[in-house]
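=== Structure Prediction Worksheet ===
Name of assembly: unnamed complex
Input type: mixed (protein and possibly other molecules)
Chain count: two
Listed entries:
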Amino acid sequence: MPPPRAVPTRPALSSRTLYRLHRLLEPNGLYRFVARVVERHAWLRRPFTRTEESVKRKVFGCRMCGQCALPVTGYACPMTCPKQLRNGPCGGVLPDGGCEVYPGERCVWLIAVERAEAGGHAGDLERLHRPIDQRQWGESSWINYWQGRDDGLWTEPGGRATPVDLGLPVLVTGKGDRER
Amino acid sequence: MIVSGSGLVEALRAGRFVVTAELGPPRGADTDVVRKKGRALRGWVDAVNITDNQGGFVRLSSLAGSLVLLDEGVDPVMQLTARDRNRIALQSDLVSAAALGVRNVLLLSGDHPSYGDHPDAKPVFDLDSTQMVWTARNLRDHGQLLSGRSLDPPPDLHIGAVENPFAPPVGFRARRLAKKVRAGAEYVQTQLVFDVGAFAGWMAEVRDLGLHERAHIIAGIGPIVSPQALEHMRTKVPGVHVPDAVATRLLRAGTEGFTEEALRVCAESIHRIRAIEGVSGIHLMAFGREHLIPEIVDRSGLDRSRFDMNACGSRERSADAG
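=== Predicted Assembly ===
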């Protein structure tokens, strides 16, 4: 089944609540173990993934890309952008902050910037997001996150986009950056 | 074909105040229009952008248009959007362009198909504009595809990006550009500037981040040639901001004097933009009225002797712009 239409969505919970909640969900030995077990058994994986989907759809308008960017976007989901831009708003944002495709909806990146800055996480907005793996649609991002597969999704704030670590699989070469 | 000293790379490297122009390819299987318009612009600009199915309307491709320009001795800037191609097609197009001698590429997300003549098309957006820039730099500097496979020889690309200083969130626009520059953008063409004051404010932020030292900032300029065009620009073109003062001034000129006033506004804007620290040039967008571009260059007082490829070397002057 194709994912639902991408329509900019304002999260149902405050960023403060979500930044707090995140601390409880950070990967640890227990979560890693749970994720491994759940992933291995389809009879566990399916209901787990469905639960994740229904919760995240309600709160974030989640479309199940399987590679969650929420922790570094003020918990506003960039995949609800009709262009699915992971690195910031497009140039077509309307003067009133509306989305160029859905003028009645506020640009989700505007929401993201406001929430990240208000929550003291402005540095997150400087991270470069790598292209996503389109095979992960419909998969549980929690399982991916707890097993550390999301670690390479974005760079450190202000980090340069080198060495070659852009694609999937992640590759590292010894070559230096070409300086201007 | 490219006369030494006439290309965009060379002009930027020499520190000249550059002029680029936009050319929209035709809807039809004929290169004559591009050829004629390109020829008319030769000698007036450093490079000419060929748009990529602009606004989501099917046209001759930007690669085809760029090749025609090369043939006419005009340095092309091939625009490439993420709207219609996945990462396989994008990388292939970048490599193909470089292999055929098209060095300047301008990488952008592109307008959503819902605006074009095929609103029923699948919007691709496999990569976003920043990721495209990053990908292009990896191709060039590391000879590597996104898959990790190597590429031999790597494409020699001059990587460009765009920014709209006027779209919300205005306070984040310079930082967003910083991401593109970190990813590898070497030059940046901006959305049309009608509010020079606001543009100057954005440039101050760009300078604070030091971006003008790592990438060349080229300001978008264009004439609004009729009351209809003004209306269209204000309501139909995403991301274009025409301040009331400019609109009122144009409307006051009446239908007869409208184009004349529009050209005057352009010349004045260029004059003011040249005085802003860190601006490397202007990008002229005339939306089908490319014949107005020489007129705008002429009126803006830019020394165009360097563009004149028929001129002998002695007429080549350095750094014409202050």
